């Protein structure tokens, strides 16, 4: 049965193919260098060229493609539940960063393989499809790689865009080339959007209207972050009855605001401890120097330094332990929001029972934060003065703080009920 793609290939698409062929060697040089720096084995580096490092399992293969850490982890619970629904199915998940690969490796669902995705060029994409021959390809959020999509549909792969989210800038860019947008979007059999705004944008850009369906924010469906109970117990013993707050996923320019806030809070809470979790642990040395410049005493996780009664800041500059820090303290400022970054996933701290403080720059999670703020599970601040007031309010009013934690967790629970509906729609529309 034919599957019309909603448009014809355009000159712009053919120009993209030609340019990608020319640039592919330079792109390969760049990504290979990054993978080498992360100590990724050569065999796995070649996955970016479409050369698989594992055999294709027999039977039905369902492929998920995500950009990096957040998107990758958000689909693991979905794969687990889909695997229970489809006990004969095998799963492939591709993601582009070594960090995401390392975290996924620790949490792989049953019957699931991880690979790096092919570069979006003719040779790598052809080799990828020739080897893996997926029955369905599920792209997460805004991963619109033209050749992967066009060649996938031509190979008979049923394609979906899951948790679809497009920035206003991206929408404006695609609308400049309406015929190409219609052609690329026409490769998908299904769009499951995070919100109505994205659904409206996709239709306006040329997506086949009946293929656009409401979904939910997939990151609400991910399982809680793992907790190292042994480490958690040891940390609790070291902290004792000291008050604690967390600044998580911070970026350059935000640590300064956090440390200014901590300085002000110490005047009212002299034994207060800050758990500072940079978004990128490899910035640990720079952040430690910044802490020293503020005059704080610091213990650093990557150096296995213990918290003492004199420690004012604990620098948690390691990967994969954020769930443990959230378990230690449910009062969380979530970074990426005081700068023009877009914010980070509030479901992770909320699933751990935390109430969340955010800056105004949470545009990547606008619908989530708006609802959490309205429900009382999150608070928006704009600067160090606001952040100081928000943390101080929750430190000084336990009943108010507990109500905020309850509201945040309740919001997450209401979102998680949508998982079965998402699986039903994927199975039906992708013929699984």
From TrEMBL:
<feature type="site" description="Transition state stabilizer">
    <location>
        <position position="141"/>
    </location>
</feature>
<keyword id="KW-0448">Lipopolysaccharide biosynthesis</keyword>
<dbReference type="Pfam" id="PF04413">
    <property type="entry name" value="Glycos_transf_N"/>
</dbReference>
<keyword id="KW-1133">Transmembrane helix</keyword>
<feature type="site" description="Transition state stabilizer">
    <location>
        <position position="219"/>
    </location>
</feature>
<dbReference type="GO" id="GO:0009244">
    <property type="term" value="P:lipopolysaccharide core region biosynthetic process"/>
</dbReference>
<dbReference type="GO" id="GO:0009245">
    <property type="term" value="P:lipid A biosynthetic process"/>
</dbReference>
<protein>
    <recommendedName>
        <fullName>3-deoxy-D-manno-octulosonic acid transferase</fullName>
        <ecNumber>2.4.99.12</ecNumber>
    </recommendedName>
</protein>
<comment type="function">
    <text>Involved in lipopolysaccharide (LPS) biosynthesis. Catalyzes the transfer of 3-deoxy-D-manno-octulosonate (Kdo) residue(s) from CMP-Kdo to lipid IV(A), the tetraacyldisaccharide-1,4'-bisphosphate precursor of lipid A.</text>
</comment>
<feature type="transmembrane region" description="Helical">
    <location>
        <begin position="12"/>
        <end position="31"/>
    </location>
</feature>
<keyword id="KW-0812">Transmembrane</keyword>
<feature type="domain" description="3-deoxy-D-manno-octulosonic-acid transferase N-terminal">
    <location>
        <begin position="44"/>
        <end position="220"/>
    </location>
</feature>
<dbReference type="InterPro" id="IPR038107">
    <property type="entry name" value="Glycos_transf_N_sf"/>
</dbReference>
<comment type="pathway">
    <text>Bacterial outer membrane biogenesis; LPS core biosynthesis.</text>
</comment>
<feature type="active site" description="Proton acceptor">
    <location>
        <position position="71"/>
    </location>
</feature>
<keyword id="KW-0808">Transferase</keyword>
<comment type="similarity">
    <text>Belongs to the glycosyltransferase group 1 family. Glycosyltransferase 30 subfamily.</text>
</comment>
<dbReference type="InterPro" id="IPR039901">
    <property type="entry name" value="Kdotransferase"/>
</dbReference>
<dbReference type="GO" id="GO:0043842">
    <property type="term" value="F:Kdo transferase activity"/>
</dbReference>
<keyword id="KW-0472">Membrane</keyword>
<dbReference type="InterPro" id="IPR007507">
    <property type="entry name" value="Glycos_transf_N"/>
</dbReference>
<dbReference type="GO" id="GO:0005886">
    <property type="term" value="C:plasma membrane"/>
</dbReference>
<keyword id="KW-1003">Cell membrane</keyword>
């Amino acid at each position: 049965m034919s599957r019309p793609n909603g448009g014809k290939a355009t000159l712009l698409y053919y120009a993209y193919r030609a340019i990608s062929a020319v640039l592919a060697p330079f792109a390969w040089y760049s990504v290979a260098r990054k993978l080498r720096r992360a100590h990724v084995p050569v065999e796995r580096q070649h996955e970016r060229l479409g050369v698989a490092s594992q055999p294709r399992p027999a039977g039905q293969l369902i492929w998920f493609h995500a950009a990096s850490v957040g998107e990758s982890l958000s689909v693991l619970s979905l794969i687990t539940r889909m695997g229970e629904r489809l006990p004969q199915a095998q799963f492939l998940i591709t993601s582009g960063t070594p960090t995401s690969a390392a975290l996924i490796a620790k949490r792989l669902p049953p019957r699931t393989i991880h690979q790096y995705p092919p570069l979006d060029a003719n040779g790598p994409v052809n080799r990828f499809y020739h080897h893996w021959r997926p029955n369905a390809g599920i792209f997460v959020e805004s991963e619109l790689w033209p050749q992967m999509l066009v060649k996938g549909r031509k190979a008979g792969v049923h394609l979906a865009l899951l948790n679809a989210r497009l920035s206003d800038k991206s929408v404006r860019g695609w609308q400049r080339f309406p015929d190409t947008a219609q052609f690329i979007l026409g490769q998908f059999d299904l769009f499951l959007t995070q919100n109505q705004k994205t659904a409206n944008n996709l239709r306006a850009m040329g997506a086949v209207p009946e293929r656009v369906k409401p979904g939910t924010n997939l990151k609400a469906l991910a399982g809680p972050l793992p907790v190292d109970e042994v480490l958690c117990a040891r940390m609790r013993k070291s902290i004792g009855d000291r008050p604690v707050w967390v600044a998580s996923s911070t970026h350059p320019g935000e640590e300064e605001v956090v440390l200014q806030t901590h300085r002000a809070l110490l005047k009212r809470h002299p034994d207060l401890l800050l758990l500072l979790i940079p978004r990128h642990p490899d910035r640990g040395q720079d952040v430690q120097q910044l802490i020293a410049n503020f005059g704080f005493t610091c213990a650093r996780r990557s150096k296995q330094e213990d918290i003492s009664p004199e420690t004012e800041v604990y620098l948690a500059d390691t990967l994969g332990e954020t769930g443990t820090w959230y378990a230690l303290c449910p009062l969380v400022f979530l970074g990426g929001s005081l700068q023009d970054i877009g914010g980070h996933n509030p479901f992770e701290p909320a699933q751990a029972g935390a109430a969340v403080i955010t800056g105004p720059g949470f545009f990547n999670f606008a619908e989530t934060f708006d609802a959490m703020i309205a429900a009382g599970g999150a608070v928006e601040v704009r600067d160090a003065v606001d952040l100081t007031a928000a943390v101080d309010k929750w430190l000084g009013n336990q009943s108010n703080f507990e109500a905020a934690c309850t509201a945040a967790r309740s919001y997450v629970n209401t979102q998680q009920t949508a998982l079965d509906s998402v699986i039903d729609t994927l199975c039906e529309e992708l013929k699984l």
